[in-house]
Amino acid sequence: MIALALATVCILIRSIFRVAELSEGFNGPLANQQVTFMVLEGAMVVFAAVSITIFHPGLAMQGAWKEADFKVCCCGGRRRRRGEERAAVRGAREKETQGAVL
Asked: Per mean pLDDT, which range of 18-22, 59-63, 71-75, 91-95 is the poorest?
């Protein structure tokens, strides 16, 4: 969870820098300093991404992830399920109408 806090602080520092940079406009001194921009913009994003990648928050769950039994499903899976549900409803309606006709 320390990595998550580090990533949050890095993104917060980046956001504060961006507000200060653009408050002076695109011609302000902060907007025209490349080194400051690279350190407070690029490095903060890299630190945040690396800390979350190395110390994934799932590690702090200590097995709770497996107990939750999440299923990874792409959009096609949802469409397929919806199609199967619609086919089942259609089949039930056809049976009802066949029963009513007989």
From this structure: 71-75
Average pLDDT along the chain: 80
Which residue do the tokens 């399920």 mark?
Answer: 81
Residues 6+ apart with CB under 8 A from 32: none
CA distance 63 to 69: 11
pLDDT digits (tens, 9 = 90+) for 53-67: 888 777 777 767 667
Please report, for the chain, the start and end positions of each structural domain, with discontinuous segments joined by +.
Answer: 2-75
Query: Helix, strand or coil for residue 56?
Result: coil
C-alpha to C-alpha distance for 14 and 7, rounded to whole angstroms: 11
Round to whole Å and give the CA distance between 80 and 39: 47
Those residues with Cβ within 8 angstroms of residue 73's Cβ, 6 or more apart along the chain or in another chain? none
The Cα 10–Cα 6 span in angstroms is 6
What is the value of pTM for the model shown?
0.56
